[in-house]
Amino acid sequence: MNEESSLPVFPTSQRDGDASPLAWETLFDAIEDGICVQSLDSRVVRANSSFAAIIGTPLEQIIGRTCAEVFGCVNEAGAIPQFCARSVSGETGYTAYEEISGKQPGQRLCSRVSPIRDESGKIVAYLMVVRDTTETVAREREVNRRQHAARFGELAASLAHEIKNPLAGIQGAADILIQRRNPNDPERELLEGVRGEVRRIDAIVQSMLDRAQPGTFNFQPASVSAVVQRAVKLAGHQAEAATTRGHRIQVEFIADSSPIVMNIDAAQIEDAVQGLLNNAIEAIDGHGSVIVRLGECDNEDGTGREVAIEVKDNGRGIREEDLSRIFSPFFSTNPNGAGLGLPAVRRVARAHGGRVEVVSAPEIGSTFTIRLPRESRRQL
């Protein structure tokens, strides 16, 4: 008996209570989870339509191919799913679970592979069940984000309360001491400096508190083009200032010819774009460029239009292990950064019903894109 002839087939008996072959095939194909049967050499010999849909490959292009070929990782060193490796080596005598990345961008899959045995207990094939958990993972991340934001808000409010009270006392004492000294007293200048630093610390604390609070947004029709252009102009001044430190950074703005007018909080959007530009300039050591693109395009599901504000630099880039953390408060890849800028950018985008995307690689650079829907879907 050859290997394929020993693979399990659907029941064909017509005894009372048994389903017909057609009924079993219909049931197999109707299951929402992706199911496939693999031979001992890891080749797919049977699969349902859900498996093909999850993988994103027609069923006729799946049957007969190896697991690594089906998942598109045959040429990627170390990327073959572990259950593929085990089935090839013949070591899988138990049910194994694994979470892997799908072929589609951002797709997450949960897989389970179990051995199929014949009447003597010998393993003759493997049954793989694959479930698309992309939406589930996204929901869990959103819940975690909201919980994290809530904890951050509580922490910021507590810190602000604990810091502002002593600051008020220090500023009050400085004011009294300044009033007691005549304008020519050399200590007056020193006390003025103390008062200025107290005000600066107070402003920093207030800024942290403002970023932690949901805030109030003022949505009005405004030109996104003009808003982004103002931010780019300010960034240009910052890039010019960087020349004093031996850097030479060029900031370029590319936009559609027609102005884009929509309901936005112009000040908040400008701050968000300015924050991305500041990060881009700071990420460049020596010579480099920052390119800002503004345009309109179809959204990812093709159901509407969206405005994309892209900020691209050729700076240091971000390590892959840090990408999932850059929007967390207080996390920063910049040693001198507070880790509050990117969370604020994402908060502004979400308040407009949009999102922030990032693509980055070390020593190549980063591209941050704010995507805002043309039709308002605010998330205040």
Structure write-up:
The protein is of the alpha+beta class. It folds into 3 domains: 129 residues, Beta-Lactamase (2-Layer Sandwich); 76 residues, Helix Hairpins, CATH 1.10.287; 154 residues, Histidine kinase-like ATPase, C-terminal domain (Heat Shock Protein 90, 2-Layer Sandwich), CATH 3.30.565.10. Helices cover 40% and strands 23% of the residues. It has 10 helices and 12 strands. The strands form 3 sheets. A 5-stranded antiparallel beta sheet has the order 2-1-5-4-3, sandwiched between helices. Strand 3 and strand 4 form a beta hairpin. It is elongated, with a radius of gyration of 29 Å. It starts with 20 loop residues before the first helix and ends in a 7-residue tail after the last strand. The N terminus is likely disordered.
Tags for this model:
12 strands, Heat Shock Protein 90, 380 residues, alpha+beta, 10 helices, 5-stranded antiparallel β-sheet, 40% helix, Beta-Lactamase, Helix Hairpins, disordered N terminus
